[in-house]
Amino acid sequence: MISSSGIEVTLNNAGLWKKFNSPMEMILTRKIGRKMFPNLEYSVDGLNPTAMYEIYLHMERMDDHKYRYVSKEWDDYARGDPITPIQKIKHKSGGQTGMFWMDGPISFEQIRLTNNPETEKKDHICLQSMHKWRPVVTIRKLENGDENSDFDEEFRIENVWFMAVTTYQNPAIKVLKVENNKFASGFRSTGNHKTVLPTRGIKRTASETFPTPPSSTSPPSKTSSNGHSPIAHPFHNPANFDFSMMGTAHQYLMNPYQNIWNYGYNMGKQMVQPVMNQWNMQISGQPRNMNHEQQGNPNSTNVPEFYGLNNF
DNA sequence: TCATCTTACACCTTTGAAAGGT
DNA sequence: AACCTTTCAAAGGTGTAAGATG
Asked: InterPro entries this protein is in (predicted)?
């Protein structure tokens, strides 16, 4: 889907995200934060090649419910915790031309998720456990290099959201993470990880942990986690699954917060979201005990049904 | 009592420096 | 000296499980 201004954003590893959507769970850790897996890696098209843009990512609470995992289902058993301010993370490349952004995958692999509201670490995003979250990309066009440009567009990818947890709830998600994340390979059935720990404290030598393969052991060239080079690669969406992002024109029509939300805030600083009002109170109702199909297709896919929020 | 969170841990990959060979 | 290969160690990314917390 292409926005009214012609900008199109797609998620490169959409197929992997789709695999996990039952729903996806992301681990939060307090001190150092936990990286997201699968990573969020986007491609963008339709920018003015010579204009300057910045790209931001933030997480958006999807509703005002707190969930728990019982009887193999997510149940919204309580009202959500008080909303914390939004933290928008600016892409490390900073302001770049449209050509730059369109030329390569846009990865936010440096982002870490934490549940520590007092964290001040760059690239850390504080989320609340047992709540539903959705990643949102903001593309900001810089007029004459001015960061206070009014041209912002937000993009949300259909079916890409997750439950924030401190420990995995759904065993199926845990299995998928172990199978697909190379750093968890020690937990695969072929791995050597011991559930009982008789050898704790004994550090092995590097040759034990990293046996030399028969060919060269020179460090591999730097690539992103999915093997892409930093330069653009063509990406094709999986068939029968539209992961292209929703255009903001649609959001403007349906989301009365959009103008408020984008009005006059400073990028890179914590934002305060608008208050709950009649509009989102009306649409924030969620069926309890959603089945998996419903969970995979939140009832408001184009627009978040809840923007949650503190006093404005 | 129980659900959730925190933390230390083993096991893994990645990275890059040092050492050795050509 | 310059370059390449091999070895090694540290850093960092995982899920696990025991204990702590409320």
From this structure: p53-like_TF_DNA-bd_sf, T-box_DNA-bd, T-box_sf, TF_T-box
